[in-house]
Amino acid sequence: MTLMEQCQIWNDNDEYQKIVDAIEVLPEEERTPELCSELARAYNNLADPGRRRDGHSAARPGSAAALQETLKDDHCWNFRMAYTYYYLDQEGPASPYLQRALEKRPGDEDTQYFIDACRRLALPGFQRNFRERTREAWEAFVQGEAVLRGLMYLEDRDAVA
């Protein structure tokens, strides 16, 4: 029996800590992308969704970056990454993973549920980041500054009169 097959049995029996223990002891070079995905799943299942995670998550910087290219087209990986970010109260980073997960498994109800939840929680929902919005606002201000100065001049002049 392979470790992946054993992980499936442990997962079916809700024995998530056994998955973590078995994969964590493997040297990094022996961890396949699929095993890392199972490790992420086990961490997600061990975490208490009602509180912030304690650092054991699929979104640890090293593992996520190294696996992203290999598993970018895998529904399970994208869903697990999104799930992790969602329960870290990071709906923004969760959203792209959810969109990719839905592309890989159209109509998936669990994925759609989290997409809808992210949209509700991320209010106000901005499509552009803060830097872009600030730059655009400043450009609009600069373009309208002459009009604003004219209005201020008129107001000052009327106050004096």
Task: Give an overview of the whole structure.
With 161 residues, the protein is an all-alpha fold. 71% of the residues lie in helices and 0% in strands. The chain has eight helices and no strands. Helix 3 runs parallel beside helix 5 and helix 5 (75-87) packs antiparallel against helix 6. Residues 51-62 have low confidence and may be disordered.
Write the layout of secondary structure elements.
Elements: H1 3-12, H2 16-24, H3 33-46, H4 61-71, H5 75-87, H6 91-104, H7 109-121, H8 130-160
Q: What's this, in brief?
A:
The chain is mostly helical and 161 residues long. It has helices spanning 3-12, 16-24, 33-46, 61-71, 75-87, 91-104, 109-121, 130-160.
Radius of gyration: 24 Å
Overall pLDDT level:
80
Q: What summary fits the major beta sheet? A: none
- Helix count, DSSP H or I runs of 4 or more residues: 8
Measured by DSSP, the beta-strand proportion falls in under 5%
Distance between the first and last residues' Cα = 93 Å
Categorize the overall geometry: elongated
Given as residue ranges, the uncertain stretches (5+ residues, pLDDT < 50) are 51-62
User: Which structural class matches the secondary elements?
Assistant: mainly alpha
Secondary-structure element sequence? HHHHHHHH
| Estimated helix fraction | over 70%
Keywords:
single chain, 161 residues, mainly alpha, 8 helices, 0% strand, elongated
